[in-house]
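User: For my dataset I need records formatted as: sequence, then structure tokens, nothing else. Please produce one.
Assistant:
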Amino acid sequence: MKKLLTTCKVFAVLAVLTLTSCQDENNQVLQENPSEKVSLSDLKREIIPSSQVIPEAVQIQLDESKKNIEKYLKNDLKIEGIAVLGKLSTEKGVSLSQNLISQKDNFVAAGNILDPESVKIGKLENLNSGEDLSIAQKGLKEMAVEEIKANANVLEISWNHKGEKFSTLCYYNDSGIIWDNILGGLVMMDKRGNSEVSNDAASKVSSKWYKQWWTANWLWGSKRGEIGYQITIYYTGSSVSNVDVSDWGNISLGKAKSESKVLKKTGAYGQCRYALGLCTPTGSLSFNSSNFSVSFSGLGSNIVSNGTKSLYP
């Protein structure tokens, strides 16, 4: 009888362990593979409704974004309404938000509004396919997990894109906007870049430098990211004795890559090679060491620049 009871207890423990294991596994699957059934109505049940006034910093960003969209995209894209939903009250609400942003039937945008031809707006699944869709979803999910936390506030923005109406969720706090699939997906940037040369007349040493960089801005105008390089030559008369090169790349809520190397460090001139790129979360960058270049894939708004620069004394 005692042996029977012991056996029953063992089976009971095993059953509990198996059930717990299955539940943990199911939770992990749901976390790694967002459910297609997540909807805005699901999320709204996890939001504490609010009639609060939008913080001044956020309102300024919304107003400036609207002005720039109207200026550069004309009537192709319009903000038709903004509604305050409230505050994310639970961890479940945070998780739903993180999943909802990256679902393939969600609307997203990519492109540079200073170059209207580059702008793409639509459902994620319609703008991407195959590996590019996976890249876009993965990038959005990773960004959302990193940035959207409990107590974030939520706006619902109503859009009209060439007659097609849809809405997006805009997350924010008192200091500004955290993320919105349209406001965060579009950028403002001058693809020609900027350059600067050292002032030889003011230089007391036999050196010269050249700097070139590209900048990406948020739709409300503030700086979001930058890539660039600088080459410096050291010389005597008309003969170069040494060359230095540096590079940099950074972007807020996105990916950046920068590489540079000296090709020629002595002689009549100095020369460097550079490989630079930045993009928003729905895109990806890769560096090819064999041809020393950065390439872009996916949907994200991006700047990629690969090239060489020669500098003479």
